Amino acid sequence: MSSIGIVSPQSMQFAEPLPLQSGAAIADYTLVYETYGTLNADKSNAVLVCHALNASHHVAGVYADQPKNVGWWDNMVGPGKPLDTDRFFVIGVNNLGSCFGSTGPMHINPASGKPYGAEFPVVTVQDWVTAQARLADRLGIEQFAAVMGGSLGGMQALAWSTMYPDRLRHCVVIASTAKLSAQNIAFNDVARQAILTDPDYHGGDYYAYGVVPKNGLRVARMIGHITYLSDDDMAEKFGRKLRATNPADTDDENGAERDYHFGFGVDFEIESYLRYQGDKFSEYFDANTYLLVTRALDYFDPARAFGGDLSKALANSRAQFLLASFATDWRFAPERSREIVRALIDNKRRVTYAEIDAPHGHDAFLLEDARYLNLVRTYYDRIWDERNSKVAA
Amino acid sequence: MSSIGIVSPQSMQFAEPLPLQSGAAIADYTLVYETYGTLNADKSNAVLVCHALNASHHVAGVYADQPKNVGWWDNMVGPGKPLDTDRFFVIGVNNLGSCFGSTGPMHINPASGKPYGAEFPVVTVQDWVTAQARLADRLGIEQFAAVMGGSLGGMQALAWSTMYPDRLRHCVVIASTAKLSAQNIAFNDVARQAILTDPDYHGGDYYAYGVVPKNGLRVARMIGHITYLSDDDMAEKFGRKLRATNPADTDDENGAERDYHFGFGVDFEIESYLRYQGDKFSEYFDANTYLLVTRALDYFDPARAFGGDLSKALANSRAQFLLASFATDWRFAPERSREIVRALIDNKRRVTYAEIDAPHGHDAFLLEDARYLNLVRTYYDRIWDERNSKVAA
């Protein structure tokens, strides 16, 4: 399934405190990361891939002991893939506060000797970028060929373009936005309230109680999941189909002959699907991380320091940009990408932008779509050609 | 504020069991209702107003001891209002399973001597209509001038048109749909899961424990509330405005100088608003009722018995129809109303339909909008004129 094959995560320790946007700092932290491909001699072929809400450093490939654990962007990154690891040296970093290896709320706070829990400082997109830049320093990468991400990962790429304008030649921002809308924040806040009011949350110190706020996390994920899918896609995949009461009952395609159960269990396929997604997520994801990551989404707003003027906020960017959005994405709709494109054009940046008429809502950025994957492939071909012509010149 | 003034609820007891769509039955039940205006001698001026999710029989006016408790459609119903109580005799009925007086889960189950709780049977839109028809029988009303409702209330009006085609001359269906989409069901199911997994739910028997599943109900309401507002309206009203930390801090209109709190409390106005809505709702609404009413929404699907063919489902309707939808309503979007309109036209029914370009999302059906209120007013003028010309002829 994965063409890159077996990969291994690495980790890097950082003793020097990282100052955070909140005024707090994290000392003695670890970043877990993976790399694919080979860094060339002049270190000019590195691409940083930033992850979204529930993803991690595991961008591509599988682990030797987990052959089914395929990286979240394996269709995008690998030998011969749009982001071709035969050409580029690709890095995936797990962000601070996450629950996949980098220092997060479930790790021991050196100041207290107990898990951070709710004491883990609120981190922002900018903080993640600062931490990623330090990792790049350690890896000896002065300038990335590209920084790339989808959704929350796209926010990190955008933040790179203004925080370290000389450290990336290209910025690839997919299905993202320069700021959340009130509706986006509203969904995040309801999700957080579900977690925060779960009695098993214990003020964030649930690790000490041997429980996790599963019910809250499950509801949070179900809410989120609805916003990742398009209305049309849900209608197409699930519609009002009733779930077969027993697995043998497969001959009734449209469910018309099945009857309602007249209760609050599963009647509809969509209920079964969403509850399954919620159950699965609440098994592996950390509730404190969910709170942190949704807050990072809410707070991202580079124009804020410029009186809301995004053009001013992006004025010091130097990179070239690829942006892509998906027509049925109602979480971060195409208009949000167009706002960024307009602000970049105001600054006379070189921008490629595509709106892809895919049916899969926000999730489309993770899925197979030839038009989308070819768009990214062509863009990386250009990055590669530019680099080669520069080398030749 | 209310032009109809002081009103009083009445109640009607029903000993004969009401057979339900599920196969169960409710015996010894009470319906609470209010009436406004005067029933004329030939009983031809009665209008039934059906309520939506969290509303009740209290459609217009105030109570003598609760001068601030204004009926939910007071801008629509009253002397000189679009549904003019100087002409029409208007009835509002609290539906079975509700928590405002009609028999519901918190009432004593005569079979057990304890509150129904989760034993209260699942009721459907059709069941409510059957119960409403029995109330009409008791009141001596053979035929309504109109049956009218918005959202879930519109579903009841639509069900009346096929269940009792000769008992209404007009059917007024506002901001409604002939069936929920997968996305609608998904939101309802997440809301129910929040309630069902709240430890204070106690399998529906929380009355016995002296608690209510407030946290779950609060999250459920917050989810629902997001779907009632349009994205644009939220952006307009709240945007990314930060809440003033202290009430004196009012000079900073756009909040740009305020800073984030870097926590999970209230930063944004939208959070404050939604949490307030959730808190308020969880103080007065019953969680078992919330489960029942959302399930009634999910199950409504008159085309289901006709292989999904809505035209066939509406074939035996006889009424004339007014439908209205709101451009920014993404819960029951205009396309859902158009589906009903097309099915009625297939059946050569007389239909008036308007799409109103109001910014307020689904909630628009409850709000002041001159175009909307004039549309309804004009329609009721026509009903009145038809009746008079019939009397004259």
From TrEMBL, chains A, B:
It holds the Pfam family Abhydrolase_1. SUPFAM superfamilies: alpha/beta-Hydrolases. Transfers a succinyl group from succinyl-CoA to L-homoserine, forming succinyl-L-homoserine. The record marks R331 as: Important for acyl-CoA specificity. InterPro entries: AB_hydrolase_1 (IPR000073), AB_hydrolase_fold (IPR029058), HAT_MetX-like (IPR008220). Belongs to the AB hydrolase superfamily. MetX family. GO terms for molecular function: homoserine O-acetyltransferase activity. It comes from Undibacterium arcticum. It catalyses: L-homoserine + succinyl-CoA = O-succinyl-L-homoserine + CoA. This is Homoserine O-succinyltransferase. It is found in: Cytoplasm. Keywords: Acyltransferase, Amino-acid biosynthesis, Cytoplasm, Methionine biosynthesis, Transferase. Residues 45-366 form the AB hydrolase-1 domain. The active site is at S151 (nucleophile), D329, H362. Substrate binds at R221, D363. Homodimer. Pathway: Amino-acid biosynthesis; L-methionine biosynthesis via de novo pathway; O-succinyl-L-homoserine from L-homoserine: step 1/1.
